[in-house]
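Subject: Interface between my chains keeps coming out wrong

I've been trying for a while to get a sensible model of this assembly. When I model each chain on its own everything looks fine, but I need the whole thing in one frame so I can look at the contacts. Pasting all components below, labels as-is. Any help appreciated, I'm running out of ideas.
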Amino acid sequence: MHKVWLIVHREYLERIRSKTFLLFTLLMPALMAGSILIPAKLADLKSGPPRRIVVVATNADLAAAVKQELLAPPPAASSAGPPEKIAPKDNFVVQISTTPTAELHDALGQQVSAGTIDGFLWLNEDELANHKATYSARDVTDFQTNAAVRWALRTALVKQSLAQKGMTGPQVETLLTPVVLRTVHITKGHEGASGITVFVTGFIMVMLLYMNVLIYGMSVMRSIIEEKTSRILEVLLSSVTAKELLAGKILGVGAVGLTQILIWLVIGALFSTPGMVAAQAYLSNVHIVVSAIAWFGVFFLLGYFLYSTVYAALGAMVNSDHEAQQMQWLVFLPVLLSVLLANPVMQHPDSPMAVWLSLVPFFAPILMFIRVVEEQPPAWQLALCLTLMLATIYGLLALSSRIYRVGILMYGKRPTLPELRRWLKYAG
Amino acid sequence: MANAVELRSIHKTFDHFTAVDHLSLNIRAGSVYGLLGPNGAGKTSSIRMMIGIIMPDDGEVWLFGERFHREQLQRVGYLPEERGLYKRMKVLDHLIFLGRLHGLPEHEARKRSLAWCERLLLNEWTHKKVEELSKGMQQKVQFIAALLHDPDLVIMDEPFAGLDPGNAVMLKDVLLELKKAGKTILFSTHRMDQVERLCDAICLIDHGRSILEGDLKKVKASWGKNHVQMQYEGDPQLDGNDLVESFNNYGNYVEIRLKPGADAQQLLHRAADRARITRFELLEPSLEEIFIDVVGKNA
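Reply #2:
Try treating it as a single job with all components included. I did that and got this:
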C-alpha cells in the first residue's frame, strides 16, 4: 500500500504543479462564465438603441393599433411567454403613414439605406387578406425585431377582428392574456427549484462530467504511453508491481480531477452571485442543488474509474499517441452515445427506456446522473446501478491490469485480438 | 559463502517461442558475474524473472538463500537495458521518488541522492528537469537510481551499451568499488572484452539454454590450450595439414587453431622439418573465441 501511495503522491504533485493544470483550471470557469454572460450582455446591448420603424397602411386604425402593440409592453410581461424575451419595453420608435404610394416606398427604402430609419412595415390590404405583410429593413436577420413586429401585427389584427365581432376592449384584453405555467420540481414531496433551474444545472453538470471523465481518462492513457516511450517502466517494475503502478496512476490522476472540480466549485460559489444577477433575466434564479453536487462527485469518480481502466488498457497496447488516436473511438463511442441519449432521458427521465439505459454501466455516469437531478429514481434502481458499475469496474480493472502487465513490456507492433487473448494468458 | 542468486531450472515460453529453457545457474555472493549470449538468447527474460517482473512458467528463483519474495527487491538494484526517466521531473525529486520506492525514508533518500550527485559531478543539476540534462548526465542519474538504496545485489542489463567513454570508465570504477565492498554484481553483455576484465564467473546462454557456466578461469582452462602462435622463417606448409583446423597469417607470425585432439608437439615437429621456427607458444583461447565457437556449434 505504501508504494501505491508513493505513486499517487508523485502523479498528483507532478500534475498539480504543471502549468497546463493551472491554465485549464482557470480557463474553464472563465469559458463557462463567458458562455453564460456574454450572450446575456450581447442581448442587453441589442436592446439598447430603439428601432425606428415606419408603419405604412391605408387603414389608419390598424396602423395605430400596430404602433400601440409595438410600444406597449406585451401583455402579461411577467409570464415566461415568448414576447417577454423578444421585445423588451420601450424598444421602438414608430411613425405612421397612411399613403402607400410607390414614391413613399422608394423614399422609405432610401431612408433605410441611409440609416435614418431601421425598417418599414408595408401593410397592403390584398396581402393582409391572405395573412401576409412585408417588413423591409437593413438588418433582416434581426430575429428579435422581426418577431416583435410579427407579434404586434398579429395582436393588432386579432384585436381588430374581435372588436368587429362586438367585443369590448377589456374583454379582448382578458381573452388575450396568456396562461402562466409555473414549473415546480418536486423531489421527495418537497417543492424545489423551477424547471429551467433543473435543466440548466443538469446540463452544465452533464457537460462537466462528460468532459472530465474523458479528459482524465485520456490523461491516464497518455501518461502510460509516455512511460512506455520514455522507457521508465522497467525501472519502476524493479520495485513495484504492475498492479500497484496502475492503481497508483488511476488514483493519482483521479485525485487531480477531483481537486480541479473542487476548485471550480469554489470559484463558482465566489462568482456565481454577481454572475447570476447579470444572467437573471435569462436563467431565472439558478441555484445548485446540494445533493446534485454530491451525486456529481459519485458519478464522476465511478465514471472516471470505469473509463480510465479502459484507457489504461488501450495505453498499454499502443506505442504512441498517434496509434492511440486510431483506437480511441472504442472508448469515445459509449460516452458520445450517452451524451446523445441525454436529451431524451432529460425529457422523460422515468420512461422505461431511460430507466434501462441508465442502468447500463457505460451510460450510467451521465444518464443516471441526469435522472438523479431531474427526479429521484427509486432506491433499488440507484442501488442496482451503483452495484453494476462497481462490478464492471472491478472486472475491467482485473482485465486491464493483465493487459497492462504484459503490454508495458512490449514495444513494437500493436497486438491483434488473438495476441491480446494470449497476453491475458501470460499474465495469469 | 552463500549464493546471492540461484536459478533452478527456470522456464519461460511466450506463445510458441521458448525464451528461457530450463536454465539453472548460481551466482556466488560477492562475485562479479557475466551473463553472456547473442541478442535474443534470453538474457533479459532471465533477468526479468530473477526480480519478478515476469514469472517463470516452471522452476524456482532463489535470492540470498530464500525463495523469491518481493521484499527482497529492496536489496536489489536494477538497471534495465531499456532505461528512462520521467522527463519533466526534477533530478533530485526523481531520485528521491525512486529511492523511496526502494524503501528508503525521504530524508535518507535526499541525503544519499545529494551525495551521489556530488560524487558524479551532477550537483549543479539537481534542481533541473531531467529533459534539460545531456544524455550522458541522464545515464549518470540512472546509475544513481539503481544504487541509491545500497543494494546487496546489483543487476545491470547491457550496462555499457550506449555509454559515452567517460561514463563507461566511471561505471567500471563504481562496479569495482562495489565489488570491493562485498556486493554481488550481475551484468549481461555481448561484449567479451569487458567480461574478461571484470568477471569472476560467467554463464553463456544461447536459445535460452546454458551452454557454459562457471568460474571464468576454469572455463578457459577447460577449453584447453588449442591455440598456437608461431613465428618462423621459410614455409611451414600449413595448408592441408591434418592437424590444423584454421589459421590466420599476420605476416610476422601466424595464429593456428588446432583440430580437436590434435597434438601441438606433433605440429611443432612437422613445421620444424620444413621451416625454421623462431617462436612457438601455446595460448589460452580468448572468451570471444570460445563464444563464437560455442554459439557457432549450437546454431
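Reply #3:
Confirming on my end. The interface with chain B takes residues 3, 6, 10, 14, 18, 227, 230-232, 234-241, 409, 411, 422, 426 of chain A (CB under 8 Å).
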